[in-house]
Specification:
The protein has 583 residues and is of the alpha/beta class. Helices cover 58% and strands 9% of the residues. The structure holds benzoic acid and magnesium ion (MG).
């Protein structure tokens, strides 16, 4: 290599590293728990408004603020700047300039009362980026309304009314960034009409994300995945009006068809020459909540799969057809059996219980976690060729057979508030299905998550997502100090993050050693921190230390011997404290 190539290589790597740091820096991080009835304050309010302002809202005639700034400065549109900033220093500089101006405008807005704030921000945008007042004014009006509604939340009043058995006004259930109409909070959340799912806007948003998923896999594996196992949740699909459902339809290569009453009850097939790629096979494991809310949607998904499996198309362009035919020949099954793709719990049951098994350390071999997932989720939904409902018929062999073809497992993350280490449900579902696949195929699938919140579709592997959440939450002083302000429950939150991270070791072996090294160094080996945790909540402190020892004991963490010895000693002293031995 000559020195120029060396320099180029070095510059490229520095640029990539810088882009990673930016990604961590810019992520919206919840700092502390929500306090009932209390609106967000600076700087969280500013971060929230910036995210809200990053999307076009055609229904309000509002354009994305970063796009307006980029346009005013004569740059490419903002999503392009985001996508190209890792490979080009110029794009990176332009992106930074856009973001700095947006941040400055929102800061000026927040310093003042409504009208003066709008004026100050409009001036910044006009002077720094030549954004026309007509455009920026609309964005700022929207932000001003959101700020006012956040300040007048009805949470306490709503609770008091509920306790008195009085009427509570309804409001849509959604994420504030996706739909600011959820404000004011404290109302009675209503869901969606399942026949309206997926909405036209969900269909529009789904296509680039599903394409990004396929492209990412093609980059890594050199070809399209034949089968993807996807987790669908109820609340998420309420919030997004069925974005994940629309992604499934796009992977199959169909679009929803609406009947005379505008209900999505059937699908239209996108011809292969228009689709330009093979139809991907899917296995859908849906939550009990999804099953309860979206019966019509489960039928729609099942209808789509059957329709695709019956097309007269070459097997190499229609993986569903290929697999259904293979299964019919190899296992002597009927079309109805071979085409089942929608699975959930038995009627009346919820969850996988994989989380409880992990939390209580009630497993020896990790294959038990995958087995439990299958036991809980092997109930088929949809209709057979005679139009009879399956109604959750137990179908263990069919789920196992469907999982035996899976190369990729996938789930959407659609809010910054709840990520894969915040709750135990992501590892019980996505981790659980991945472990079940591993048993059927002998190899762990590639695990992806989408980040449908950032402008520009973003797909990350599970390992990348664990690293990002560890950096932005668990190990981020901004996050854990925010939690510790809540005392007892803050320590419990930190412990939950460590345990949920461990859940990704248990189900997918997806956690780097440095994560545990740094968790131990930050929360346990730092005497002052340990003392804070111990005095605020000794139970959670003990569980946290115990979880680290479990990670090492089960072979997920190669820890230094001296570190393990210290952890053991500390664990012992925490136990003594809780049992009152050493006071
Ligand atoms: C759901 O919305 O379907 C869901 C929520 C929490 C945990 C699991 C599923
Ligand atoms: Mg490891």
């Amino acid at each position: 290599m000559d020195s120029n190539t060396l320099n180029d290589d070095r510059d490229r790597r520095v640029l990539e590293l810088y882009e990673r740091v930016l990604e961590i820096e810019q992520r919206l991080i919840p700092t502390g728990l929500h306090i009932f009835g209390q609106p967000p304050d600076n700087p969280e309010l500013g971060d929230l408004l910036r995210m809200v302002a990053s999307f076009d809202r055609p229904e309000l005639g509002v354009r994305s603020l970063p796009d307006l700034v980029a346009e005013g400065l004569g740059f490419a549109d903002y999503v392009m700047l985001l996508n190209e900033s890792a490979g080009s220093e110029q794009r990176l500089r332009e992106r930074e300039r856009v973001e700095a101006i947006v941040r400055e405008a929102i800061a000026r807005f927040l310093e003042r009362k409504r009208d003066e704030g709008i004026k100050a921000a409009v001036n910044v945008l006009s002077e720094e980026a030549s954004v026309a007042e007509e455009q920026s004014g609309k964005v700022l009006e929207m932000l001003a309304n959101i700020r006012e509604q956040l300040e007048t939340n009805h949470e306490v009043v709503g609770l008091m009314r509920a306790l008195r058995g009085e009427y509570i006004e309804p409001g849509p259930g959604a994420d504030i960034i996706q739909n600011p109409n959820i404000l004011p909070t404290g109302r009675n959340t209503h869901a969606v009409n399942p026949y309206a799912v997926p909405s036209a806007s969900a269909v529009r948003r789904a296509e680039p994300i599903a394409n990004a998923l396929l492209e990412r896999h093609r980059e890594e594996a050199g070809r399209y995945p034949e089968t993807i196992a996807m987790v669908l949740w109820g609340i998420d699909n309420i919030k997004t009006e069925g974005e994940a459902v629309a992604q499934v339809l796009w992977l199959l290569g169909v679009t929803p068809r609406r009947d005379a009453m505008n209900r999505a009850t059937d699908v239209d097939v996108i011809p292969l020459d228009k689709l330009g790629r093979p139809r991907i096979d899917v296995v859908l494991t849906v939550s009990g909540i999804f099953r309860d809310l979206f019966g019509a949607t489960m039928t729609l998904l099942d209808t789509a799969v059957r329709k695709i499996a019956s097309l007269d198309e070459p097997a190499e362009m229609n993986f569903i057809k290929r697999h259904v035919e293979q299964q019919m020949t190899e296992t002597d099954s009927s079309f109805d059996e071979a085409a089942v793709r929608v699975f959930s719990n038995a009627a009346g049951n919820y969850g996988t219980n994989v989380n409880f098994m992990v939390l209580d350390s009630q497993w020896e071999d990790s294959s038990e976690l995958g087995d439990l997932f299958v036991t809980r989720k092997c109930f088929a939904y949809g209709r057979d060729s005679q139009g009879r409902n399956y109604d959750g018929r137990e179908s263990r062999k069919l789920l196992e057979r469907a999982l035996s073809r899976v190369e990729v497992t996938y789930q959407n993350i659609d809010t910054t508030e709840v990520g894969i280490t915040d709750v135990d449900h992501y590892f019980e579902y996505l981790g659980g299905v991945s472990k079940a696949v591993e048993k059927q195929t002998g190899a762990r699938p590639t695990i992806y998550l989408s980040d449908s919140l950032s402008p520009g579709a973003k797909i990350r592997t599970l390992e990348e997502t664990v690293r990002l959440e560890t950096r932005t939450k668990t190990l981020n002083p901004k996050w854990f100090e925010g939690m510790l302000r809540h005392g007892f429950s803050g320590v419990a939150e930190i412990e939950h993050h460590v345990t949920n991270t461990f859940g990704w070791s248990a189900t997918a072996n997806a956690v780097d050693d440095w994560v545990y090294d740094e968790v131990a160094a930050t929360f346990v080996l730092d005497e002052e921190m340990l003392e804070r945790l111990r005095s605020l909540n000794p139970h959670s402190a003990r569980t946290l230390v115990g979880r680290l020892l479990e990670a090492s004991g089960r072979g997920f963490w190669k820890a230094e011997q001296s570190v393990l010895e210290q952890l053991q000693e500390i664990f012992g002293s925490l136990e003594d404290k809780l049992e009152g031995v050493a006071g």
